[in-house]
Design brief:
Helix content: 55-70%
Oligomer: single chain
Strand order of the largest sheet: 2-3-1-6-7
Number of domains: 2
Largest sheet: 5 strands, mixed
Order of helices and strands: HHHHHHHHHHHEHHEEHEEEHEH
Number of strands: 7
Bound molecules: guanosine-5'-triphosphate
C-alpha cells in the first residue's frame, strides 16, 4: 500500500488524481475519480447505477424510443416498396402501426408522469413497475405480430431481465419477467393450436430476395438491442467491480492517515509470519508511539493533533522500503512490518524513521511549526513458528522500555524463549 495525504477538500481530491482514491477517503470522491477516467459517454453510462429509481425508469423509456422509431421507418419503407407487399402483410402492418402509435402515446404519458415523479418522489419503486410493464407490453405486442418463436423473442427474454436486474430493483424486474414469459408462452401455444396465425405480419417468402429481406429486417430490429445489452452489461459489471475494489480498499484503510488500518496491518503481519516460517527468512515488527501526544492535543487542539498523525504517517512511509507495511494500530500508535529485515537492517530503518520524524517540521494552518518525536520498540525473528500477537506483545514491551528510558529512542526485545508463550 502506498502512502497518501488525505485531501482536505473535494477539489483537492480531484487535483491529486486516482492514486488518492485507491487508499480512499470517501466513496463518493472515489467514484468521482472512476468516472473521471472515462469519456463523457462512458461517464454517463457508469453513473446510471447511482441514479434514482424514477430516473432509471425514465432511462428505460427513452431507450425504447429507437425501437419505435425503427419500426415507423421500416413500415414507411415497406409501404413505399410495392415489391415487398407480397411478403409483408400490409393490413396487419397498418393495424400494428396503430398499436405502435397508441403505445407511443402511452409511453409519452408515462414519461410525463416520470418527469413529475422525479421531483416529488424520485425513489418510488412503483414507477419502475409501471415502466417495466409498459416495456413488456410493447414487446408482447411486437411478438404477437412477428412471432413468439422468433430470434427477437429469445433475445428479449434473455437480455431484458439480465439488463433489468443489473440496473433496476429486483422485484419489478421479476414481476415484469414473469408476466412477459407467461404472455409469450400463451402467444406461442395459441399460435401452435391455430388460435391465431403465427407471425401474422410475415408472409412466408418463396424466393431468395424475400428471405434476404426478412433476414435483413431481423438484423435491423435486433442489432441495436443486442449491442446495447452487451455494452451496458459490460459497463455495469466493470463499474461494479471497480466499486467493489474501492470499497474493499476503503475497508482496509485508516481514514485519517490513509495507511493500513488495524485489520489490514494484522492481516499483512499474519501473512509475513507464515512466510518467515516457510522460507526461514527474518521478519521484524515495530510498534511506535508518539511522545507526549496528549500535549499536542491539549496545546493545539484535536484538528492539529490529527494533522500531526497524518504527517507522522507520511514521514514514516517515506522512510520505509516498498516491501514494508505501515499501519495505524490505534490512537497515536503505529505498527511497521519489515519483511526480510534482520535485527541490524530493522534498526537502520527504524533509526532513519525516528530521526526524520524528529526533524520534520509540521506547519499548522496558522503557520506555527510543531515538532514531535516517537518511541520505537521492535522484535526480530527468523523462521520461528510464532503467533503474531506474541510478536506484537514483545514489540510493545520494547516500546514500553523505550518510553521508560527517556522516549525518542529505539529499543528491541528478544521474543520469549518459553515455548508455551511463543505458541500461545
Ligand atoms: N488528535 C487526535 N488525538 C488522538 C487520536 N487518537 C488518540 N488521540 C489522543 O492521543 C493521546 C494519547 O495520550 P497518552 O496515551 O496519554 O500518551 P502521550 O500523551 O502520547 O504520552 P506518552 O505516550 O507516554 O509519551 C490522547 O490525548 C488521545 O486523545 C486521534 O485520532 N486524533
Amino acid at each position: 500500500m502506498k502512502y497518501f495525504t488525505p485531501p482536505s477538500s473535494y477539489s483537492e481530491t480531484e487535483a491529486q488524481g486516482p492514486e488518492v482514491c485507491r487508499n480512499g477517503i470517501a466513496i463518493q470522491q472515489t467514484f468521482h475519480h472512476i468516472k473521471k477516467r472515462h469519456s463523457f459517454l462512458r461517464k454517463r453510462l457508469v453513473s446510471i447505477l447511482e441514479w434514482s429509481r424514477v430516473d432509471k425508469g425514465i432511462f428505460i423509456l427513452v431507450m425504447l424510443t429507437p425501437y419505435f422509431l425503427q419500426y415507423f421507418l421500416w413500415s414507411g419503407y415497406v409501404v413505399n416498396h410495392s415489391e415487398l407487399h407480397g411478403i409483408v402483410n400490409i393490413s396487419v402492418l397498418n393495424s400494428y402501426l396503430w398499436i405502435q402509435t397508441i403505445l407511443v402515446v402511452i409511453g409519452c404519458g408515462i414519461l410525463g408522469f416520470g418527469l413529475v415523479m422525479r421531483r416529488r418522489k424520485p425513489d418510488a419503486v412503483f414507477f419502475q413497475y409501471l415502466v417495466l410493464q409498459f416495456f413488456s407490453l410493447s414487446m408482447i405486442a411486437m411478438f404477437y405480430y412477428v412471432g413468439p418463436l422468433s430470434f427477437s423473442a429469445g433475445l428479449f427474454l434473455l437480455g431484458a431481465p439480465v439488463w433489468g436486474l443489473i440496473l433496476l430493483d429486483r422485484k419489478p424486474v421479476w414481476w415484469a419477467t414473469g408476466i412477459a414469459v407467461t404472455a409469450l408462452l400463451g402467444l406461442g401455444y395459441a399460435a401452435a393450436y391455430n388460435v391465431f396465425p403465427h407471425a401474422s405480419l410475415m408472409i412466408p417468402p418463396t424466393d431468395q430476395a424475400g428471405r434476404v429481406f426478412w433476414m435483413n429486417s431481423t438484423v435491423y430490429f435486433n442489432a441495436l438491442f443486442f449491442i446495447l445489452i452487451l455494452v451496458m452489461a459490460d459497463q455495469m459489471l466493470a463499474w461494479w467491480h471497480a466499486r467493489e475494489d474501492n470499497i474493499r480498499e476503503l475497508s482496509r484503510t485508516d481514514a485519517l492517515t490513509g495507511v493500513h488500518n488495524r485489520l489490514s496491518i494484522l492481516d499483512f503481519l499474519n501473512h509475513e509470519v507464515a512466510r518467515t516460517v516457510r522460507m526461514n527468512t527474518p521478519l521484524s515488527v515495530v510498534i511506535l508511539d508518539l511522545d507526549h501526544f496528549k500535549r499536542v492535543n491539549d496545546d493545539w487542539g484535536h484538528p492539529v493533533g490529527d494533522l500531526v498523525l497524518q504527517r507522522t504517517a507520511e514521514v514514516l512511509q517515506q522512510n520505509i522500503r516498498d516491501i514494508d507495511a505501515l499501519g495505524r494500530y490505534g490512537g497515536e500508535e503505529f505498527i511497521i512490518v519489515l519483511p526480510g529485515a534482520d535485527h541490524g537492517e530493522a534498526l537502520n530503518i527504524i533509526e532513519r524513521c525516528r530521526i526524520e520524524l524528529a526533524r520534520a517540521e509540521i506547519l499548522t494552518e496558522s503557520n506555527h511549526s510543531i515538532r514531535v518525536t516517537a518511541s520505537f520498540g521492535f522484535v526480530c525473528v527468523s523462521g520461528l513458528q510464532i503467533e503474531p500477537h506474541v510478536l506484537i506483545k514483545t514489540a510493545d514491551q520494547a516500546l514500553y522500555a523505550a518510553k521508560s528510558n527517556g522516549r525518542n529512542r529505539v529499543e528491541s526485545m528478544e521474543v520469549s524463549s518459553r515455548r508455551e508463550e511463543v505458541l500461545a
